[in-house]
Amino acid sequence: MAVLRALLRHTSGQIGVVVIAVFAVAAVLGLLGLTPHDPLAQDRLARLQGPGATYWMGTDLFGRDILSRLMVGIGQSFAVALLSVGLAAGAGTVLGLTAAWFGKLWDGAVMRAMDVLLAFPAILLALLIVAILGPGLVTSVVAIAIVYTPIFTRVVRGPALSLKTRSFVDAARTFGSSRRYILIRHLLTNLVAPLTVQITLALAWALLTEAALSFLGLGTQPPSPSLGLMLSDSRNLMETAPWMLIFPALVIMLSVLGFNLLGDALRDVFDPRTRRALA
Amino acid sequence: MTLLSVRDLRVGFGREGHETEVVHGVDFDVTAGETLAIVGESGSGKSVTAMAINRLIDFGGGRILGGRATFDRKIDLATASEGQMQRLRGREIGMIFQEPMTSLNPVLKVGTQIGEVFRKQHGLSGRAVRDASIRALDRVRIPDAARRLDQAPHQMSGGMLQRVMIAIALAGEPRLLIADEPTTALDVTIQAQIMGLLAELKRDTGTGLIFITHDIGLVAGLADRIMVMRGGEAVENGAADQVLDRPAHDYTRHLLGAVPHFRAGQAARTDGARTGQVPALDVRGLSVRFPVGGGFLRKTRGVVHAVDGVSFDLVPGETLGIVGESGSGKSTTARAILDLVRPSAGRIETGGTAAVQMVFQNPNASLNPRMTVRGLLAEPVIAAGQNVDADVLERMRTLLGRVDLPDDLDRFPHEFSGGQRQRLCIARALMLNPKVLVLDEAVSALDVSVQAKVLDLLVDLQREFGLAYLFVSHDMAVVERIAHRIAVLYAGRIVEVGAARDVLSSPRHPYTQKLISAIPSIDRRRIDYTLDTEEVPSLLRPVGFVPPDQTWQEVGPDHRVAKEPLS
Question: B2-92+175-257 belongs to which CATH class?
Fold first, then answer.
């Protein structure tokens, strides 16, 4: 609660929280099926209608409500992004911390493996994994998690290496503190700032990657709505029905922006040196 | 002739129109060939004042808010344009910084960096640059100058690098030289060399010198005038003898009183004589070696003998001061006792793991910034496998009171001052009732007045709890105040050990004598430091090197000196 209150005193925090909260509400409603129309129902008489009183954001080629489809799509995209980034952050943190702490062979093995993953462009690697595992939601989560694990590993390992040599870690060793205690209390707590920033950035990237995979037909499968698929559908109708492009694109752009603003604000809030100043 | 005349100089930081003023109107003059020392503690505005004169402050987010700084009777440095300043910097106003290691570009040869000045400012080229560079290095007494030109900064010691920095600053033949704590990062014997060099150069070139330092004792040997600053104001400004002998302001008196005067053993402690107690810490033949160049499938090229056969013991209620310069192995010895580095030989006997605790040099770095006082003090208790119960909380409160800190367990380290943080570290080290405290340069990072208070606290705690201290320090004057016995470490070995009074009043080993003669003191005015350029020998030995045994000579009831020659 204290974190949220501090967030709301922070200008970019306010904007980020509001944007993400709006999308989160839309996502939850979408996942619960509380949409204005059935996102899958086709209305032959209302094909390619512009935004209006019945269909607020217009309809697509099959006469399906764009708003309803967007709400469900946001839900799926957010769920995929959260799950995959959660997995990546968890795996990356464990790998990065242990690599920094134990060093030597383990460090070399972990970091070279991460280098191999990083050598591939993110989307290409995701495509490769999807190609192996077959398209679908679960595959998207796994693929995006694997793609972003090296970034978390690096983000954690760097500062962990320098934290490891700080005197407060030496001091902890002189008390005889356990390895687990030092790793969690001294290293991890000081990694909260880089991690939150990275998590929010990665959420934004993961949203984009998920959209790209769906756009290419490898993520969410039709007729389930998703942001990427909706963009894909709008390609040929860009001039006749621009609303089909604009609304999903706007949602992607705003949510990426929202996560970035939220990340900046969280970094300030978690830092005890600026928290008191904000309070 | 007045070289620089500063009137009502005010400097601030922050957004334009919303600056926080940190220097509130100072006045001073610098005459050619004269040294003005600006003395103050951290945050006094001494460095900001100096940086405002050559306007380096502009690059650090600061601005001159008012006043004049007339250089050479014609240019007002406070209002000069950046273009004008660029022509002045280096050519008319030189600068020497605190950290020679970070002031030089690590990837360029030393010769290239000196040569740049001659190329840019004197229009020299080719052979002439090299000749001028060699002459510049000769002038700052760097032996073998021609060879040094082709070396990279990392191949030279800190003292050498600071001399290179001085050579660079002097290459432009400035009429005013600003030295910002130029010896603070250096060992005391190297500091003496640099001070000697500065005094000699000032005499020879007639350069005006502004010398900024926190150590009022250091400037006595060099300064003609002294300005004492506090909180952005000059509280006193006068001739050096006047300020040192008849200080007019309370704060100057306070500073002079707080500076630990080295008194050649006269100030050594007389309490707590040894009466055959069982040692709380017994170290026998401790050696720590680090292999160099080894690694996966690579051969070890050599071994650094950081600590070589060090033995001593420590009884309850006693302080053993371990003194030496950087690379002497004093910190490594301390770390080996706490098991932070693995000894390669020797025996360390303590009464259990919790019996020895350590206080580190930098209190900012040794407290996790994300933990509250409660968490910090609880850590040793948790590490010992105990629960943080009401008794432990009670002990926290007692200890906080004992080290004179507020009884607030929910504060974070950044809410305390440097001295308070170090007291918090001391309280933390005492949580488990240790028998021995290892204090590794524990007061070195503190301002002198804070230093004195922490030393007093340490002495009180020692008497109250019967603690034994292993006090590791480079500062002989501080060690004199707290140590009962002193061990002098040189190149990884103890060369002299004994009662503090005996070692400090009649040092026998040549290194101890050199160390003591280099200590700056308020009583040493305008002395000629003898320039010697001897460097500490390399501790890198071939694999399998066995150091020769030390033979000891008893020179007093509790005073022994190693007979091996200085290698």
Answer: alpha beta
Query: What is the CATH architecture assignment of B281-511+553-562?
Result: 3-Layer(aba) Sandwich (3.40)
Helices B373-383 & B418-430 angle (0-180, nearest 10) = 30
Interface membership of A279 toward B (CB under 8 Å) = no
- 3-class DSSP assignment, residue B289: strand
Q: Give dist(CA A272, CA A270) in Å, integer.
A: 6
| A179 close contact with B: CB closer than 8 A | no
CA distances (Å), origin B37, targets A4, B178, B243, B537:
51, 10, 11, 34
Q: State pLDDT tens for residues B477-494.
A: 889 989 999 999 988 899
> Amino acid identity, residue B2?
T
Q: Which two tokens stand for residue B214?
A: 């926190």
**What CATH number should be reported for the domain whose range is A2-33+57-278?**
1.10.3720.10
Per-residue tens of pLDDT for chain B, all 567 residues: 789 999 999 998 877 777 888 899 899 999 988 999 999 888 888 888 988 988 888 887 888 888 989 988 888 988 888 888 888 887 888 888 887 777 888 888 888 888 888 888 888 888 889 998 988 888 777 777 888 888 888 777 777 888 888 888 888 888 899 998 888 777 787 788 778 888 877 888 888 999 999 888 888 878 899 999 998 889 999 998 888 889 889 999 888 887 777 777 777 787 766 777 788 899 999 999 888 765 556 677 778 888 988 999 999 989 999 998 877 888 889 999 988 888 988 899 887 767 889 998 888 889 998 899 999 999 999 988 888 899 999 999 999 999 888 888 999 988 888 888 999 999 999 998 899 999 998 888 888 878 888 899 999 999 999 899 999 998 888 899 899 999 999 888 999 999 988 999 889 998 888 888 888 776 666 555 555 656 666 677 777 788 877 888 888 888 888 886 544
Please, are residues B356 and B429 in contact by the beta-carbon 8 Å criterion? no
Interchain CB distance below 8 Å, B415 and A276: yes
3-state secondary structure of B22: strand
Task: Report how far residue B397's alpha carbon sits from residue A201's, in angstroms, rounded to the nearest whole number.
Answer: 43
Q: Do A176 and B354 touch (CB under 8 A)?
A: yes
Query: Which of B10, B46, B25 minimizes the C-alpha distance to B178?
Result: B46
- Give A-chain residues touching B356 at CB under 8 angstroms: 174
Q: State whether B369 and A273 contact (CB < 8 Å).
A: yes
CA nearest neighbour of B54 among B177, B165, B163: B177
* Interchain CB contact of B54 with A (< 8 Å): no
User: Is A173 in CB contact (< 8 Å) with chain B?
Assistant: yes
Going from N- to C-terminal start, the domains of chain A cover 2-33+57-278
CB distance B383–A176 less than 8 Å? Answer: yes
Tell me where in chain B the CATH 3.40.50.300 domain(s) lie. Answer: 2-92+175-257, 281-511+553-562
Nearest by Cα to B207 from B171, B181, B180 = B171
> How far lies B435's CA from each of A97, B288, B386, in Å?
35, 24, 19
Q: Which of B451, B446, B402 is nearest to B424 (CA)?
A: B402
